[in-house]
Automatic annotation (TrEMBL), chains A, B:
<dbReference type="InterPro" id="IPR002937">
    <property type="entry name" value="Amino_oxidase"/>
</dbReference>
<dbReference type="InterPro" id="IPR036188">
    <property type="entry name" value="FAD/NAD-bd_sf"/>
</dbReference>
<keyword id="KW-0560">Oxidoreductase</keyword>
<feature type="binding site">
    <location>
        <position position="409"/>
    </location>
    <ligand>
        <name>FAD</name>
    </ligand>
</feature>
<dbReference type="InterPro" id="IPR050703">
    <property type="entry name" value="Flavin_MAO"/>
</dbReference>
<dbReference type="GO" id="GO:0016491">
    <property type="term" value="F:oxidoreductase activity"/>
</dbReference>
<feature type="binding site">
    <location>
        <position position="326"/>
    </location>
    <ligand>
        <name>substrate</name>
    </ligand>
</feature>
<feature type="binding site">
    <location>
        <begin position="21"/>
        <end position="22"/>
    </location>
    <ligand>
        <name>FAD</name>
    </ligand>
</feature>
<dbReference type="Pfam" id="PF01593">
    <property type="entry name" value="Amino_oxidase"/>
</dbReference>
<feature type="binding site">
    <location>
        <position position="221"/>
    </location>
    <ligand>
        <name>FAD</name>
    </ligand>
</feature>
<protein>
    <recommendedName>
        <fullName>Amine oxidase domain-containing protein</fullName>
    </recommendedName>
</protein>
<feature type="domain" description="Amine oxidase">
    <location>
        <begin position="1"/>
        <end position="432"/>
    </location>
</feature>
<dbReference type="InterPro" id="IPR001613">
    <property type="entry name" value="Flavin_amine_oxidase"/>
</dbReference>
<comment type="similarity">
    <text>Belongs to the flavin monoamine oxidase family.</text>
</comment>
Length: 437, 437
């Protein structure tokens, strides 16, 4: 979406553009799918009210939104116990809830101390925060076992990685860009408030349609060559020369491309130190949305099962019921090694655990293992281990000669989301326009 | 060296072997060079008394050793002050020295609690240690500013990376494999005790010579294809099929190869989470080893200059004087972006700072920037950020179908050293022999 956004902006500015896409479809981490005749998103799907660029682009492309279903009780499966809760407050001990409240306030304060320009390395406490993992920070600052574990679950759900693998500074920046934990994890008022009628992928598809034959599919870039005048992009079957190149791929994919004029060591270091999160997205269809009748809204958060995070994905006409959810972090890596049948058994067992025996008889099951996607290498987003932001972060948006960098990882608002991808595409396009030649 | 060792072992076992080498020379992180007519090592060069595999292989190949020069005082340039010291004990405040002594004893005890099998993820405190960076651990356990800073300098010199980028568990495992900090950093009795007459690279060269035309140079591997019967390796110009494949490259290089039968997500995750250290190795030649006459042994450790670690590299006949040293960690990345002239000026200024005005007039200067080496992506060794060892580490030596893994990063003793490379090559070869078909 970042690349398509760049191309559209440049075309509007009167430039000739060409989009090279590795896959046989556009959209990257947006991906269409189907379950029981119903269109679904195998990739990103939600939009929050603060994500104004995505809303604007959807409107532009004529894709409407509808609200995430939230009426009813959520399920918390935590430390071996299943409970139901309404509102935002899960059923934990009073002490844990008290500590979680303090924790959120502290994160809110710390993230507010970061520059609003997407340069967390310039924060007063950047060095100290970047020396810590989120886990080592939790161990040092959160006392109750329940609050610790809940903080882990939530962050795992947001970043699809274990808290011990992520820099605390990076985590705070992610919070800042996503307007805090509540906005990041919430439905109403948050990043999961609305969905797109017909699926989020349509937005990318329609953006690509406007670019007509300027989009070439099945064209993985193998090498990039630069000289004083031009930049040349090499695919298996062709070479394309241009004045400027915008690379809109996750950092780890950029690291697999050969550059004849070597990138600065700092840029390479960054590319090789930003691994992707790990997640398997799964849809399960039922004849009816039976959970609704029993007062559930379909949402689950869990730290003791495999299918960790679940939402209701039932279509508006309720002709069938659908649940959508995620296996994230280390669980995704472990379950990626299973057969589909074993994974299926596990997911259904988890749904029975959450919603009772009615969950045992689905009519459809569709999974998308992002850990095995060659052209993303994971989802939702790249993360930074400790020390990467402060050592290499400041090169992330710096052009290298005629190469400019886009992609949601380079955003300064809503990094990790479509909205961040769009922002990065607009920024990269303006760099190119400003550079002129 | 790992690949060559595997090939020799397999040849001895009666197998047919082929070694594909990306570069125009064998040796990988061993690399020959020359300064003022004197052969030098642009890559690894030392051998310690505990590195029995390397000693044995050198003997086998007829390469002799000679001791690192250590007679005289070492230089410590620390927090803006230059001092000279003899024996192992630098000139720090008594309190700092006391704390460093305690620190070393603690590390000694903790590393001794790790399994001797190279499986640190199985240690009792693995999860906790792997949640910390070395830096966050230092901040929590070392109090005096001097001791903290000295711990940073030493670890930066060993791993060529900033303490905030490395898992504390990985660091302890590195200590264990290298027999503790003293052995890792020391000359006499340690990993820098001896050097090879004519250079360390000769060992690899002579190993390759014994393999005759079974070694193909300039043959970077682009893709690997597996089926039930064979594994096929694809280069730009040819395809080679075999029963078994041993990959002896750093993890990040393995991540750039395309596998038709996708590797397990866990293996990919590991490859994409083990970045290489950053180092520039520099030799400076003088008419005479003037520092010796002034009572210096040529060794420097510094935390306040750029050319952080220096050793005497003068040939035995003393027909000229040579200093060899390193710019490591973030400094290497920063100085890699300079012109060679600016780097030269900085290095000479640093040597003048350490040894006085006589250092200002070198007769030769040779540098090797490992951060820009396409086929190593850094030196001396890959490291693991927090959370990688406990989440993905246990797959590091597990074959994937017909693919076996060698390289110093997979060693269980002396990982990061030639000795570890040899151990890994022997292990991978025996896996192949045991697998038979």
């Amino acid at each position: 979406m970042a690349g398509l956004q760049s191309a559209l902006k440049l075309k509007q500015a009167g430039k000739r553009v060409l989009v090279l896409e590795a896959r046989d479809r556009v959209g990257g981490r947006a991906m269409p799918g189907e379950i029981c005749g119903q269109t679904i998103d195998l990739g990103g799907q939600w939009v929050g009210p603060q994500q104004t660029l995505l809303h604007a682009q959807a409107r532009e492309q004529g894709v409407r939104t509808y609200p995430q279903h939230t009426r009813g009780a959520s399920v918390l499966s935590f430390n071996g116990k299943v409970s139901r809760y309404t509102s935002d407050i899960p059923r934990l001990s009073l002490l844990s809830l008290l500590e979680l409240g303090l924790l959120e306030r502290r994160w809110q304060k710390e993230m507010a101390s970061l520059p609003t320009t997407g340069e967390p390395w310039a924060a007063a406490k950047a060095e100290e925060w970047d020396a810590h993992t989120l886990e080592s920070w939790i161990l040092g600052h959160v006392r109750t076992a329940e609050a610790r574990e809940f903080a882990r679950v939530v962050t795992r759900a947001v970043l699809c990685t274990e808290p011990r693998q992520v820099s605390y500074l990076y985590f705070l920046e992610y919070l800042r860009q996503g307007r805090g934990l509540k906005a990041l994890t919430g439905a109403e008022g948050g990043a999961q408030q609305d969905k797109f009628v017909g699926g989020a992928w349509q937005i990318s598809k329609r953006m690509a349609d406007r670019l007509e034959d300027s989009v070439k599919l099945n064209a993985p870039v193998l090498a990039v060559e630069q000289d004083d005048q031009t930049v040349t992009v090499v695919t298996e079957t062709a070479r394309y020369s241009a004045r400027r190149l915008i690379m809109a791929v996750p950092p780890i994919l950029a690291s697999k491309i050969v550059f004849n004029q070597p990138l600065p060591s700092k840029r390479n270091a960054l590319h090789e130190r930003m691994p992707m999160g790990s997640v398997i997205k799964i849809h399960v269809a039922y004849k009816h949305a039976f959970w609704r009748q029993r007062g559930f809204n379909g949402s689950v958060v869990s730290n003791d099962r495999h299918f960790n995070v679940v939402f209701d994905q039932t279509p508006d006409d309720e002709r069938l019921g659908i649940l959508v959810g995620f296996i994230d972090g280390d669980q995704a890596i472990a379950m990626s090694a299973m057969t589909e049948e074993s994974r299926y058994q596990q997911v259904i067992a988890d749904l029975v655990h959450y919603f009772g025996q009615e969950a045992a008889n689905p009519i459809g099951y569709v999974e998308q293992d992002w850990t095995r996607e060659q052209w993303s290498r994971g989802c939702y987003v790249a993360h930074m281990p400790p020390g990467v932001m402060t050592s290499f972060g400041d090169i992330i948006r710096q052009p290298c000669g005629r190469i400019h960098w886009a992609g949601t990882e380079t955003a300064t608002e809503w990094m990790g989301y479509f909205d961040g991808a769009l922002q990065s595409g607009i920024r990269a396009a303006s760099e190119v326009v400003a550079a002129a030649l």
